[in-house]
Design a protein that fits this description.
Helices cover 41% and strands 9% of the residues. By secondary structure, the protein is α/β, with parallel strands linked by helices. Helix 6 links the parallel strand 3 and strand 4. It comes from Streptomyces tuirus.
Amino acid sequence: MSDRAPAGQFLDAAIGLLQRVRDEEADSIAAAGTLLADTVAEGGRLFAFGAGHSSLAAQDLVYRAGGLALMNLLAVPGVVGVDVMPAPLGSALERVDGLASAVLDSSPLRAGDALLIISLSGRNALPVEMALHARALGVKVIGVTSVAYASETKSRHASGTYLKDHCDLVLDSKIAVGDAELTLATVPAPFAPASTVVTSALLQAVMATTAATLADRGIEPPLLRSGNVDGGHDWNARVMERYADRIFYRH
């Protein structure tokens, strides 16, 4: 490491990753935004899923000021965040065969919908099975992952495959295996993860593309406004009423 303070080094690392995503994933971001715009225009519904800390980026898309009102969280009990006790149970559930299929079969997802699956490693049974089963249902799948894991780790799915192998589109977050940007001689392990920052930014770039693409087609994007600005709640109520059949976080 350089002589710069760790805070500055971390921010530089995050900025570098964001620049790589901007430059190297531009075509994939455009394609993902177009896929979601197509889904909205054709009457489909939008869903996002992530397990553990990958769920943070999924949750950031749902009921979000400035975001698409149609984005719904596909929740799997016990793996959405770190509120489950004990916390390692969530990690264990990601490796359980059959869980994703059971969740999807009990969910409102149907043919013509789109599902964002966020998994940094893409190696566990849950995201792999979810992508496989969702596509079998006729759902379009966008995978958000670090492609590097597929060449540096072993899959935990029976097929030996990864999330990236079962998607209509893949967005590569560029995060290094281990998700830690800094090292110090005085610290025994790498530290300072950047996956949440980068993945959230990557997904918001997709959402921006979706909104602009819809507008270019003469379709008003179903966007939410902040409830903390005057008129925000009334605006949101109108949007939610118009799209009530495609919004599931109100029921």
